Amino acid sequence: MDSNQYINLVGLKENNLKNITLSIPKKKITVFTGVSGSGKSSIVFDTISKEAQRQLNQTFTAYIQNRMPTYSQPDALSIENLSPAVVIDQKRLGGNVRSTLGTVTDTYALLRLLFSRIGQPFIGESDVFSFNNPKGMCPKCQGMGRRVEPDIEKLFDKTKSLNEGAILFSTFSAGTWYWQKHLVSGLFDPDKKLMDYTETEWQMLLYGKDKKIVLPLKNEPAKYFEGVINRFRRMFLEKEIHQLSNNVKKFITITHCKACNGTRLSHEVLNCKINGYNIAQFAAMEIGELLKVIEAINDPIAKPIISNLSIRLHHLVDMGLYYLSLNRETSTLSGGESQRVKLIRHLNSSL
What we know:
By secondary structure, this protein is of the alpha+beta class. The chain has helices at 40-57, 62-65, 101-104, 107-118, 152-155, 177-183, 199-207, 228-236, 246-249, 267-270, 279-284, 287-295, 303-318, 335-347; strands at residues 6-12, 20-25, 78-80, 146-150, 252-256, 273-274, 277-278. Helix 12 packs antiparallel against helix 13.
């Protein structure tokens, strides 16, 4: 037996391991099974993976090592013939609303390149087709595909006055700094019920005015009135949705962007097509269907791109992810789907 063809582990005592010795064959699939607490993770993650990363880090200079994660040496007599390790866990990919299956696997980057080469009419380089780029994103939703707006019906109780607590959002409610210094500082009658406001008063309360209004604040610099809705947008809705607190989420509505119909892209980008399809329609197809459409493109200019794209799509299909679409947000993928996507990313790597 050639010992170099095996990872040799001697006297493992990490966590609950009791002086374990074993040899793991290289270039083969080895499965560790057992009941919970039997030591599977202690061998794979806390010994093999940790030591492989530690030894790899030691190849760098001390200056670089000081800026890298540190790993302690596993409790073992000896560990031999390790190779660099890649850990693919079942943790969900997560990510924000701009992270999709297409972006995380780089397949969308190839689609953008494809449309920049043979899409008609020609509108520019590949970055124009990105919903994360100002050149290509829908100007109304900023490439989000949906609009997040304050829910006026939930923010206000129009049967009450400002003094009675007409604003239901706690940060702006009666007694708060904003309520004292802005809402009841003289611009509005604090005892008048909102249902009795004139249209001008109601619009001022919601949005302020184009012409800024100086408030009479004592012992403070002059400030300008900012409507409740505009202040709510500025303070809370410039964040990603997943960063919003549960309290804020109670007072918002999320709808498809009507300007781009949820595609995230500008009209100019959506008008550029290949064989009757725009890039958003490609991204919305199930991967199994998209693969057929891509392989039906016979433009010689696009042949290298089609070949590379087909390989990546075949990997997704081979992993059983044929039912997903490239516009699927990574935050909605399950743990198992996330693990397979991570595996595909490594398969697509040229390392």
